[in-house]
Design brief:
The chain has 241 residues and is α/β, with parallel strands linked by helices. It has one domain: Alpha-Beta Barrel (TIM Barrel). 36% of the residues lie in helices and 18% in strands. Helix 4 packs parallel to helix 5. The longest helix has 17 residues. The chain is globular and about 55 Å long. Pfam families: GDPD (PF03009).
Length: 241
């Protein structure tokens, strides 16, 4: 999977429709980062803040209206754009792609709008509505560390796979995913419990799947794919050079 749409450092600005198209062309799927505006539009964006613009203080997508976001885009002196999740879904459907999309939902944005249960519920509902509208049920994964969001996705019964983001202990993440009935783990490779053939076999016996991020070395990617056989690998090295 192409990390941030087309791989960080690729030929296109990350987390844009152009990056996503490039990622679709080069890999078996893409990973993109999502945030929700006050108008309930899902924008592709990774970072906590926008850049400062025209002397304005830093601001964030959560808490901003779509018009305010477009004003920010327009004030950039360099070529810059932001894309929406709906644009990616439209492209996927219009081109009849058989490619997976992993939606990385950030739950650590400390604003009055995003650091709330209602924000996570609204974001889950908006994703679910788009999945239904574009018949994307067989192509979408969500990854998040927030149980409110993942549980809401499950409750909406859209067929979206749910992955618990795990930054630390592999076994604790597996225990939580099993207890909650999630599809599997979104695992930061190189955590306290290095992935082995043995703990991957345990994961399989428990009926869980896994996506691993973010690998860069071609040799490492091929080695892990062969030895551990994860379901998904996210990388910026989309050309495996």
């Amino acid at each position: 999977m192409a990390h941030k749409g087309g791989g960080g450092g690729g030929p296109f600005q990350e987390n844009t429709i152009e990056a996503a198209i490039y990622g679709f062309e080069q890999t078996e799927g893409i990973e993109i980062d999502l945030q929700l505006s006050r108008n309930n539009t899902i924008w592709l964006f990774h970072d906590e803040f926008f850049y400062e613009c025209n002397g304005k203080d830093k601001s964030r997508i959560p808490g901003q209206t779509d018009n305010e976001i477009r004003t920010f885009i327009a004030c950039q002196t360099q070529p810059y754009k932001l894309s929406t999740l709906e644009e990616v879904f439209q492209y996927h459907r219009n081109h009849h792609l058989n490619k997976k999309i992993s939606l990385d939902v950030k739950s650590w944005l400390p604003t009055a709008y995003s650091n709330t249960t209602s924000y996570m519920v609204r974001l889950a509902d908006q994703i679910s509505d788009l999945v239904k509208a574009y018949s994307m049920q067989n192509y979408i994964l969500v990854e998040c560390e927030n149980a409110v969001f993942l549980n809401r996705i499950k409750k909406n019964r859209t067929g979206v796979e749910t992955y618990l983001t795990t930054f630390g202990d592999f076994y604790e993440g597996m225990r939580k995913a099993l207890k909650a009935g999630y599809t599997g783990l979104s695992y930061k490779y190189g955590g306290p419990n290095t992935l082995t053939v043995e703990n991957m076999e345990l994961l399989r016996r428990k009926g869980l799947k896994i996506e691993i991020w973010t690998l860069e070395s071609k040799d490492e990617i091929l080695k892990i794919a062969e030895e551990l056989k994860p379901d998904y690998i996210q990388t910026d090295n989309v050309l495996l050079q």
